[in-house]
Design brief:
20 helices, DNA-binding
Length: 486
DNA sequence: CTATGGCACGGATT
DNA sequence: AATCCGTGCCATAG
């Protein structure tokens, strides 16, 4: 049990406090913004202090501390990341200046999270027949919050007096822009488009298409045995497929990101989570050199610092008698919120500091270098309950120095590095290698997994068993990068 | 006999 | 407490 900090408030409210800390911790930056905004609106004791920028690097800072990047000690160890809380989303100003120069080229991460239509439009502009612009505009403004097409295609066609297939063409163009699958009429179609795009650069389980096309119903309900019999495969295999799909595809393109998807959350949750909005941004202090400390910015989606309005604290003494109770409780709630917020940030900062040290290689060099770390181990180190880590990790996404945005949970993926290693081995193999042989090769790279597991990963990646693979003399070279910055 | 896939158990995660 | 994931054991295919 963590005794955390003893708060010197006369009313500690420990249970309420703990409960709220938990909730706040599990909120992503976007959700947190809503929460704070509503608190600000309803509680006069809260006050949003103006944002403060570091005079040198223009980072937006939270609280009163000096800019941790610019005021760092000269002698800073390379493996010692600089971790701090930063107060608004547009870190992009200093990490990527390209964006402002060429707005046509959509760099996904730099998008304003509130402007999905414009973001997509910029990407497709070069390929879009100017005559179709109104169509595209119409489509993009009719998107639902999830990024699906809210109105029937026929309606759009009728409205503009154009043939249906022309609308279809525009939609198809839009679907292939980031976030892939937007403007699909249904989650199902969004998945299909994503799968198609994914298949260009990766191998995908061949049955995934059929699973989505025909087994969507089972898929969304986790009815794996039914799905299995539909596809003519075992339940376990069906689960593999489903796993692949949930892991790599997103039925609601405008939602968070590749990764965690809620098939079940069909309930009208006002989840306004914008697409690709990182909760944490990791960059290199000096992006030129290889040996450079990491800079980790934990996002607070507000421009400024939240605090208790000191005037309110004063005023409460002379409150009109009928209001004292109300004001008191306002003040109480406000302090609670602020404290919890601080604690949330504190926890995340500690978490990220430890995590970035352990996963430095992964952050810099990609999937193959991911260290297997369990949440449990980390929770022990940080002396918090494991569910705390779990909550903190599962809802958030991180932007890596290479610009990719991934779920923070990926930092704990126990199999990713092995899977990429297996893919590499098979890419390079001359003759088909059996699982056992692959297993041995993995051992040489210090990856110790059971032979059985190799088989699983292989099928997970949609790679056929050895006896069904072709001898690989001139297999296509793996020069495809997933998303070149164009 | 070897290579793989199915099933089930136990630890990790949520 | 329910679910997911890596593994061991066994059956089956070649």
């Amino acid at each position: 049990m963590l005794t955390q900090r003893q708060f010197h408030e006369h009313r500690p409210l420990t249970t309420a406090h703990l409960a709220q800390t938990m909730t706040l911790l599990s909120l992503s930056a976007i959700e947190l913004r809503q929460k704070i905004e509503s608190a600000l609106a309803s509680n006069p004791a809260l006050e949003l202090l103006e944002e403060r920028r570091c005079p040198t690097c223009l980072r937006r800072l939270s609280g009163n501390a000096p800019c941790p990047v610019c005021s760092r000690p000269q002698t800073i160890a390379v493996d010692q990341p600089i971790v701090f809380v930063s107060s608004r989303e547009d870190f992009q100003t200093h990490t990527s200046t390209r964006e402002t120069e060429t707005p046509e080229v959509g760099v996904p991460i730099a998008a304003n999270p509130d402007d999905l239509p414009g973001f997509v439009l910029r990407q497709i502009a070069p390929e879009l027949d100017p005559a179709d612009r109104p169509l595209a505009a119409h489509i993009l403004t009719s998107l639902s919050e999830d990024g699906l097409l809210g109105v029937p295609m026929a309606e759009i066609a009728r409205y503009h007096h154009v043939p249906l297939d022309r609308v279809q063409n525009v939609i198809s163009l839009i679907q292939h822009a980031e976030p892939v699958g937007v403007a699909s009429p249904s989650p199902q179609e969004a998945l299909l488009v994503q799968l198609e795009v994914l298949a260009e650069n990766h191998s995908v389980p061949p049955l995934a298409y059929k699973a989505i096309r025909e087994g969507m119903d089972f898929l969304s309900r986790h009815r794996y045995n039914e799905l299995g019999s539909l596809l003519g495969i075992s339940t376990a295999q069906a689960r593999e497929i489903a796993r692949f799909i949930t892991k790599n595809l997103n039925p609601f393109p405008a939602r968070a990101h590749w990764g965690d998807i809620n098939y079940t959350s069909q309930k009208a949750e006002p989840n306004t989570q914008a697409y690709s909005y990182p909760d944490v941004v990791i960059s290199k202090l000096n992006s030129e050199t290889e040996e450079s400390p990491l800079v980790v910015e934990v996002a607070i989606p507000l421009s400024g610092t939240l605090r208790i309005n000191p005037l309110f604290r004063e005023a409460i003494r002379q409150a009109p008698p009928d209001k004292t109770e109300q004001w008191k409780s306002d003040l109480e709630q406000a302090t609670l919120l602020v404290k919890c917020l601080q604690q949330r940030n504190h926890t995340i900062v500690r978490l990220m500091r430890r995590l970035t040290v352990m996963q430095r290689q992964f952050i810099l060099h990609g999937d193959a270098y991911l260290q297997p770390v369990t949440r449990a181990a980390l929770s022990k180190e940080l002396e918090v309950h494991e569910s705390t880590i779990s909550r903190a990790v599962s809802t958030k996404s991180v932007q890596l120095p290479n610009g990719h945005i991934i779920p923070l949970a990926n930092f704990f993926d126990r199999s990713l590095h092995i899977r990429t290693a297996i893919k590499e081995i098979i890419e390079k193999e001359k003759e088909p290698l059996s699982d056992t042989q692959i297993c041995k090769l993995l051992e040489k790279r210090d990856y110790f997994v059971a032979r059985r597991t190799v088989a699983k990963y292989r099928s997970m990646e949609g790679i056929l068993p050895a006896h069904l693979r072709k001898p690989n003399h001139n297999r296509r070279n793996r020069t495809h990068k997933t998303s070149q910055t164009l």
